[in-house]
Design brief:
elongated, binds zinc ion, two-stranded antiparallel sheet, 7 strands, 2 domains, alpha+beta, 2 helices, five-stranded antiparallel beta sheet, 169 residues, disordered N terminus
Length: 169
C-alpha cells in the first residue's frame, strides 16, 4: 500500500554535466514519445494518467497514477479526497429487465480495480451490480457466473424457439 506511484523516480540523480553523456540512453516513454507524463516505468497493460486529489473546497493537486488500459474513468473530473480512494472502472455492460410494476432492476457488469484495497492485492475484479448492490468476483467465480448466464441465455433461446413465427409487418 505504500508503493503508490509518484512523479519522480527515474531521473535527477546525476549532475547536469553527466546528462550530456546520457542523452542517447533510451528511457521509458510512450510510443509517440510526445506526451509530458513523467518517465517512470509502468506495468504492461497500464498507463500513467493525471488524477486530481484533495477536498472539493481546495484546489487539489494533480498526481500521476497507474491506470489500467480498460479504465474509462476520468480521474481529473472524478476527483477523490485521498489517493487511497482512487479506483478504476471499465466500460459497463448492462442487462435491463423492466417489469411493468415496480422499479427497473438493472444488472451491470464491469471491471474494477482498487489499488489501495489490501484484500484485492491490487488485482482487477469483475463487479456485478444488481440494482446498486455490488458483488465483486475473482476470475474463477466470474467464469462460473458467466457459465451460469450462458446456460440461462440458452434456456431463453430454447424456449423462444418453440414460439410460433410472427407475421412479418
Ligand atoms: Zn483509471
Amino acid at each position: 500500500m505504500s508503493h503508490l506511484p509518484t512523479t519522480s523516480t527515474a531521473r535527477s540523480t546525476h549532475p547536469a554535466s553527466a546528462l550530456l553523456d546520457e542523452v542517447q540512453v533510451p528511457v521509458a516513454q510512450s510510443a509517440a514519445g510526445t506526451n509530458n507524463a513523467p518517465a517512470v516505468a509502468v506495468r504492461p497493460g497500464y498507463r500513467l494518467v493525471p488524477a486530481l486529489v484533495g477536498k472539493s473546497t481546495e484546489p487539489g493537486s494533480i498526481l500521476y497514477v497507474e491506470c489500467p488500459d480498460w479504465c474509462v474513468v476520468d480521474h481529473v473530473a472524478d476527483r477523490n479526497v485521498f489517493i487511497q480512494d482512487i479506483s478504476h472502472q471499465g466500460e459497463k455492460a448492462t442487462l435491463s429487465l423492466t417489469p411493468t410494476r415496480g422499479e427497473q432492476v438493472p444488472l451491470e457488469v464491469y471491471l474494477s480495480e482498487w489499488p489501495a484495497l489490501a484484500e484485492d492485492n491490487g488485482q482487477p475484479r469483475l463487479d456485478v451490480d444488481i440494482d446498486s448492490e455490488v458483488y465483486s468476483y475473482g476470475r474463477t467465480a466470474a467464469m462460473a457466473l458467466a457459465d451460469q448466464m450462458v446456460a440461462f441465455a440458452e434456456d431463453v433461446r430454447r424456449l423462444a424457439e418453440t414460439l410460433p413465427e410472427e407475421a412479418q409487418a
